[in-house]
Amino acid sequence: MHIILASTSPRRRELVGLYNVAFEFTSADIDETPRAHESPAELVRRLAIAKATIGAQKFPDAIVVGSDTIVWIDGTILGKPVDAADAIRMLKLLRNRAHTVYSGVAVTGGKQSITAVAATTVWMRNYSDQGIAAFVATGEPLDKAAAYAIQANHFHPVDHIDGCFANVMGLPLCHLYRTLKAFGVHVDPPDRACQTYLQIDCPVAQEILKSDGSAGMTSDQ
Question: How far apart are alpha carbons 73 and 190 in whole angstroms?
């Protein structure tokens, strides 16, 4: 059976490559405007389902994965900066503070959809104005939500996190594994491959994989 990732994100495509199954890819353009009084978790779950649904319309006989990620601080979503000045503003807002990265994942096939939500708390370093300026000058922050990448090699904005590292990159691999498993798709647990590839020691992978996920997953027929 074909498994489709409804995303054009190079980071998500990079991460699903760590599974032992081959994914195919399609785009899924949707309106990502939050609804009134919608929580971050509700938003990313809804958008992940919307992306998976669009993919399923294109590939009705496939299993389709949709995902959406937001950066949340002070009750506000930080998207991609519009220009260098906006990137500087975001990095100063985040500096020496904690924020939360939310991702929703949805697996859809036929009339069934199973979803999960991951949340990671991220504490940023007290980096300097000079460090911000040098990073923004590279142009790299302009295509990244909240103007940073946790995996950046030359600018390390993150001090530490509580939760899934891959989630901050845009796709929580252990949550997606759990969702695929609940849907009946056989894939190997991604924790070892993820930690080796990202060169991290993940303290939460086993906890996520061992959980049945019932508190954070929904299934619709």
Answer: 29
Distance, CA of 181 to CA of 175 (rounded, Å): 10
Residue 103's DSSP bridge partners are 69, 118
- Report d(CA 55, CA 7) in Å as an integer: 9
E strand map for the chain: 3-6, 23-26, 63-73, 76-78, 98-109, 112-124, 158-162, 217-220
CA dihedral 88, 124, 192, 209 (to 10 degrees): -110
Tell me the catalytic residues.
Answer: 68
Query: What's the whole-number mean pLDDT along residues 15-39?
Result: 93
pTM metric for this prediction:
0.93
Q: Phi and psi dihedrals of 129, rounded to 5? A: -60, -35
Chain centre to alpha carbon of residue 88: 23
Return the closest-CA partner of residue 95 out of 142, 174, 159. Answer: 159
Report DSSP state, residue 212: -
Cα dist. 67→58, 132, 158, 200, 206 in Å? Answer: 17, 29, 23, 23, 22
d(C-alpha 57, C-alpha 69), whole Å: 22
pLDDT at 41 over 90: yes
